[in-house]
Structure formats: structure tokens, C-alpha cells
Write a structure and sequence with these properties.
The protein has one domain: 3-Layer(bba) Sandwich (D-tyrosyl-trna(Tyr) Deacylase, Chain: A). Helix content is 19%, strand content 38%. The protein has 2 helices and 8 strands; from the N terminus they run E-E-E-H-E-E-E-H-E-E. Strands 1, 2, 3, 6, 7 and 8 form a 6-stranded mixed beta sheet that branches. Helix 1 packs across helix 2. The radius of gyration is 15 Å and the shape is globular.
């Protein structure tokens, strides 16, 4: 599982002009399931996401997590985080999970994430979404359950 995670002042997602998910301070995470991912990957990614120490403490050091600061997570499904451009200019998405099992993978990831107690908002799986991100920092981190942890 991959996640592109951004520390945000605020973020929201719209479908057909309607806001379907919005957060204040927290993390906006673009989530993609890989074709070989399983529940261990979803759980490890969720755990890493909520415990990332990328919020500043009183001394200005990045030592606090979204849990520590009482923030929220906006989790957006996005298979394009598996885009591979090593063989040209048009991305290949061979590493991404097929849409049918990916929908269930995303749902399982969200279930694990919500069990942590962090407020979670979402986009809509496979929808054409407009995402507005007020990036804080900017701080952007790439998580990959097959490489990072």
C-alpha cells in the first residue's frame, strides 16, 4: 500500500460540486493499494500514518503525530500513486490493485484507521474528485508498505 501524505492546515474533497469530506489541521493522504497488498499492509500503513512525527512541538521540532495534536485525516483513494514511468512518459499502473478488490482494500484500510480514534474523512472511491489542500510546511511524505517499514 502506498500513501502520499501531506501535513495540512485544512483539506476538503468535492464530488460534483458537493463537499463530501473536509478536515481542519491534520493529514491529507492519497491512498493506493498494490496488487500484492493484504491486511498487514493496510494495518502497517494506517499505523505509520497516524504516528508520523511531522507536527511541530513547542520548540519547532517535528516531534508530534496527528494523534498528539488532535488532528484528523482526509483519506483519498488514488490508484495513480502506483504510476510507473520507468519505461516512457505515459504511466503504467500494472502495480496497482484491480478496482474491485481495491475498493475492499480501501474500506479495510479505513476501518483500521478509524479504530485508532483519529477523526477520518474520505473521498469517494473511483469518483472524479476535486481535492483542495492547504499544505502546511509544505510537508509531504511517501509511505510504501513494501519499502518503508
Amino acid at each position: 500500500m502506498r500513501a502520499v501524505v501531506q501535513r495540512v492546515h485544512a483539506a476538503r474533497v468535492e464530488v460534483d460540486g458537493e463537499v463530501i469530506g473536509a478536515i481542519g489541521r491534520g493529514l491529507c493522504a492519497f491512498i493506493g493499494a498494490g496488487k500484492d497488498d493484504d491486511l498487514r499492509d493496510y494495518a502497517a500503513t494506517a499505523e505509520k500514518l497516524i504516528n508520523l512525527r511531522i507536527f511541530q512541538d513547542d520548540e519547532g521540532k517535528m516531534s508530534r503525530s496527528v494523534l498528539d495534536v488532535g488532528g484528523a485525516v482526509l483519506a483519498i483513494s488514488q490508484f495513480t500513486v502506483f504510476g510507473d514511468v520507468r519505461r516512457g512518459r505515459r504511466p503504467s499502473f500494472e502495480g496497482a490493485m484491480h478496482p474491485t478488490p481495491a475498493r475492499e482494500a480501501y474500506a479495510q484500510f479505513l476501518e483500521v484507521l478509524r479504530r485508532t480514534g483519529v477523526p477520518v474523512e474520505t473521498g469517494r472511491f473511483a469518483a472524479d474528485m476535486r481535492v483542495m489542500v492547504d499544505n502546511d510546511g509544505p510537508i509531504t511524505i511517501l509511505l510504501d508498505s513494501k519499502k518503508s517499514f
